[in-house]
């Protein structure tokens, strides 16, 4: 029998992938499933980005690159951050990563160990808690509440800091709620972080370009005074519909660049070379496809929120960003897990139970609206029929 180390037993997972597998199994059995479970754009990567990768392969970019990423890509990222956030970032503090996830994986490994505490959003992306537990650190939930539109109160958050706190994880716009943290809360948080110089901040800004109703993104990079305590995670997966390319980046304090490079060398050596050239084309090329995709998400957001609010027992706040709706389903009388399973099996609609994103997701279900308006309408109609039949 293989004898696994103890940490492996504490490693969690992402339930969305399990729902996806179950949905695929039902499809194999001939069922018609509408997938509102998976967190990825239903758009294709824009053609000019695909062409840049093909050209890179034809031009012979087949070997290793520097572990930190090729300089022209890091320069393009710095220019993009300047354009989007009015933030000056040294390309030497930018790390090109195989997606967004490795940045959370590595930063939690860097700061988490038994006896330390890491604060993370709940409901939140499940990998945060999974990796905190793997590291042996104690996970401390930052509760995101429906009545706050799933933002947080920075003063309350700062009170959760103890001498054992090493890292605080933030995610705005957020998965699974679509919640957006307002600028004034970010400012309060920055002041509090400055007063706690041993506490690091990991700001997951992967949905930073997906904002609605005129909301603007409050990047932590706008506060140069906390750069020594700040790691920012972002990437191409969502913005450019490139989840399968595995391309992301992070910005690090200068003092940690050597450590993060070492972790990268030990883990993946470098990111796929052709994907890095594609990343340059994405940032430097036309941005029309990003604008069009966000407009499409905005239309679907309005429709799904309106439809979900008409379902008996559902209540859905309007999400300000990302591409998720997170309705409260306590009025249906079902638990979130039962409802997730029943609407998949009986209505043919894949969603994800709120508790997959932490205990404070109890009573909620996540809908990803990265699907067509037509499918969204059919899906909600089917759920409505299921709920009416379930009452009889
Ligand atoms: C909040 C958040 N951060 C990071 C990621 C991971 O992105 P990637 O696919 O680039 O690793 C996701 C993906 O769903 C996410 O929702």
Give an overview of the whole structure.
The chain is built from 13 helices and twelve strands. The chain has 392 residues and is an alpha/beta fold. The strands form three sheets. Strands 2-8-7-6-5-3-4 form a seven-stranded mixed sheet, sandwiched between helices. Helix 3 packs across helix 10 and helix 11 runs parallel beside helix 13. The structure holds pyridoxal-5'-phosphate.
Short description:
This protein is an alpha/beta fold and 392 residues long. 41% of the residues lie in helices and 13% in strands. The termini are far apart.
**Shape field:** globular
Bound molecules: pyridoxal-5'-phosphate
| Tally of helical segments | 13
**What structural class do helix, strand and pairing data support?**
alpha/beta
* Ends apart, CA distance between termini: 51 Å
Rg value: 21 Å
Secondary-structure element sequence?
HHEHHEHEHEHEHEEEHHHEHEEEH
Mean pLDDT: 96
Percentage of residues assigned to helices: 40-55%
**Care to count the β-strands?**
12
Strand content: 5-15%
Low-pLDDT regions: none
Strand order in space, largest sheet: 2-8-7-6-5-3-4
| Major sheet | 7 strands, mixed
Assembly state of the chains shown: single chain
Features:
three-stranded antiparallel β-sheet; seven-stranded mixed β-sheet; binds pyridoxal-5'-phosphate; 392 residues; alpha/beta
